[in-house]
Amino acid sequence: MNTNGNGKPSMAERLRDREGIDRAIRRGVQEALRVHKLLGHPVIGGRRDGSVFVIPPEEIVLDEEFKDPPKLPDDMIP
After folding, report:
1. Alpha-carbon distance 3 to 54, whole Å?
2. 55 pairs with which residues across the strands?
3. Res 76: pLDDT
4. Which residue, of 26, 28, 43, 65, is most buried by count of CB atoms within 10 Å of its CB?
């Protein structure tokens, strides 16, 4: 393992960790979905054809793999 002198993987090594990158992205998406659901906000998305769709908060499905409570900034907590 190449390190940058402090025992941590180098940036190049981190970028080669495709599974780690995918997991981090999925965790971030799940956290955003959980926050939207908890606050009662819909999720807005776009399709490749340019159309837009809305997922009401009660229809947001969360992945059980990521059960950690979301990290909400104080100004977002009702």
Report:
1. 44
2. 43
3. 64
4. 43
Which amino acid, residue 36? H
pTM of the model: 0.69
pLDDT digits (tens, 9 = 90+) for 19-61: 989 998 998 899 899 989 988 999 999 999 999 999 999 999 9
57, 42 in Cβ contact below 8 A?
yes
- Is 43 within 8 Å of 7 (Cβ atoms)? no
What is the token pair recorded at 38?
């908890």
So what's the pLDDT on residue 65?
Answer: 80
Looking at the DSSP bridge assignments, the partners of residue 45 are: 53
Per-residue three-class SS string for the chain: CCECCCCCECHHHHHHCHHHHHHHHHHHHHHHHHHHHHHCCCEEEECCCCCEEEECHHHCCCCCCCCCCCCCCHHHCC
Give the C-alpha separation, 60 to 65, whole Å: 15
